[in-house]
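Q: For a teaching session next week I want to show students how multiple molecules come together into a single three-dimensional assembly. I've collected the sequence lines for a complex. Could you give me the predicted structure tokens for the whole thing so I can convert them for display?
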Amino acid sequence: ETGVTQSPTHLIKTRGQQVTLRCSSQSGHNTVSWYQQALGQGPQFIFQYYREEENGRGNFPPRFSGLQFPNYSSELNVNALELDDSALYLCASSPVNNEQFFGPGTRLTVL
Amino acid sequence: AQTVTQSQPEMSVQEAETVTLSCTYDTSESNYYLFWYKQPPSRQMILVIRQEAYKQQNATENRFSVNFQKAAKSFSLKISDSQLGDTAMYFCAFMKRGGGAQKLVFGQGTRLTINP
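A: Of course. Below is the structure for the complete assembly, covering every listed component.
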């Protein structure tokens, strides 16, 4: 059974640019959640997708957006990047109402 | 809104010792899960142990056990016979059960170092 995978592992962008991060959920999991983890902090919930629909959102501005595809994989898009967007972005997949399994994360650096 | 507080930013013990990490939370919900996650330097968040709020019995997983005090809203993690591989950041997390987004609310983390 393949676990949660994320790509890319690292990337560097400059302020004002746009970025797309990708996540493949674990087999059989129809729910994907995205978290932002700033250095030295606990992860913060960005949003969750269930069956291709946004199922809840944390306190993040609209320039953070997402998609979930029919195969339950997901994308996180961030527009107009700011320096404070530098963080580890974690994706987690789960069956409904069950524990979340995390991917290895994407480290985003904004210069 | 739920909050999770971990009051110990760092802890350090010798190999084979027992260590307890503290966590308190605040919620008005009655039906929820509590978790401890481990994040080693590899960054992968790994589930250590899970507790369902309606269960009075404390969860255990091999060397890991919790002390769940629902009235006090306390959820501590005990690691027995600590090993070098236990060195990691440990996060306490809350998740409401039921409808709506199943989001995890994390504490700030405790950096645990196991010394040889």
